[in-house]
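User: Sequence recovery, please. Input:
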């Protein structure tokens, strides 16, 4: 059942990858994921790159720009609205426990740049770090620099693969779609466990 869902999403994005709406959707998804939405934009970016490999770097730029703007939004959510929105995050967002939240503060005190960069570049849920950065008032320009570098490296690394290999990667995805769907779910869930491991 889940494979059919991902397959429909994949086929839909392939059909829309060259439309103006696909780029807007990629930007919006990247923005939302950096501040409050649980699904990462990588799956959409990858699908669009598969459809149009020569536009891969354009898609990376859109995703990176949207994600950094979303990170800024998340930062100011934590800075200005945390008392209002914290019950939602502690109740509904995995890894947003009071204990882990204070441990994130310790990571920021040790090396804020490394903490933000690691979250920006890896499968660790980025929103946990963008919002907490605002709550703990880490240096905004340090936060912005680490976010821009980490997110850009992540999205441009993905696009570089598709730009270089193009059609062969698309054939690989088409033949092994179910296996790759499982891998994507593992990475998505694994990101939350990475946080628990880091914050132990």
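Assistant: Recovered sequence (200 residues):
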């Amino acid at each position: 059942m889940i494979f059919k869902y991902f397959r429909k999403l994949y086929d839909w994005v392939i059909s829309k990858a060259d439309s103006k709406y696909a780029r807007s959707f990629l930007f919006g998804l990247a923005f939302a994921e950096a501040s409050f939405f649980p699904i990462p934009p990588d799956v959409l970016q990858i699908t669009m790159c598969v459809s149009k490999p020569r536009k891969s770097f354009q898609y990376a730029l859109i995703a990176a720009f949207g994600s950094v703007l979303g990170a800024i939004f998340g930062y100011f959510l934590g800075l200005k609205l945390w008392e209002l929105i914290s019950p939602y995050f502690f109740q509904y967002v995995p890894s947003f426990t009071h204990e882990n939240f204070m441990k994130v503060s310790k990571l920021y005190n040790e090396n804020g740049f490394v903490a933000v960069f690691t979250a920006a570049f890896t499968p660790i849920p980025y929103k946990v770090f963008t919002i907490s950065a605002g709550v703990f008032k880490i240096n905004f320009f340090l936060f912005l620099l680490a976010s821009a570098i980490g997110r850009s490296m992540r999205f441009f690394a993905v696009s570089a693969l598709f730009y270089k290999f193009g059609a062969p990667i698309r054939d690989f995805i088409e033949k092994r779609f179910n296996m790759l769907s499982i891998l994507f779910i593992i990475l998505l869930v694994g990101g939350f466990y990475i946080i628990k491991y880091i914050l132990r």
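The CA atoms of residues 47 and 163 lie 13 Å apart.
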